[in-house]
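Journal club prep, shared notes

We agreed each person brings one worked example of a sequence with its structure written out as tokens. Mine is DNA-directed RNA polymerase subunit beta. I'm keeping it raw so we can talk through how to read the token line rather than staring at a rendered picture. Sequence first:
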Amino acid sequence: MADDFHKPTLFAGSRFEDYVGAEDPAHISRVAHETATALLARVRKDPHPEVVGRLVEFTDTNGIDAIAELWARASPHSLPGALWALYLLRALTVQDADQSSFLYQRGTEIAPTIDPLVAGAPIPTGPAEITALADQILRGVFEGDFAIALDRAAAFCRITAVGATSLADDMESTAPDRSTALTTKALRLSHMAADLVVCARLWRAGSLD
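Then the structure, token by token:
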């Protein structure tokens, strides 16, 4: 990834596809770390609004698979693992903004923490607000404090997990399958939040790579 990229087409889908098919674990890990480091360093050095916008919206036009090929198998406590989690969180939020906002709003109503303040979504939180929050968090990766972006994403996950757990409890007797799915979702979000917290701590210590 040493060659130059013109800003309007920075890291286009065709470039990501160069890495598809690499099965050697060492090679996969090396590519994941190299691309994550190069991408973050280059964009943060000159966070041109057009470039940042294209990166934030990358999965809207290219899907999540291209990024998954690069970073999904990285350690969750690494730079590529953190970027994968942030992109995945945004993609899942945008994919179903109605449910995402409903679970998030429910979580803010019962969460006994300052997570709603950390995440920073307007209250009440509808589909437009939850989508804007997901965009803001990912945008902060490239043009803000990276650790704060991770903290906001972790709070987002925890709030949504609380909302999903609450709804699962309500549906346990009337829709057990749906309740189980929501419980699983909450568990995964909780794990993601914990991983993001670790990544934020490592970033602040200068050891997230």
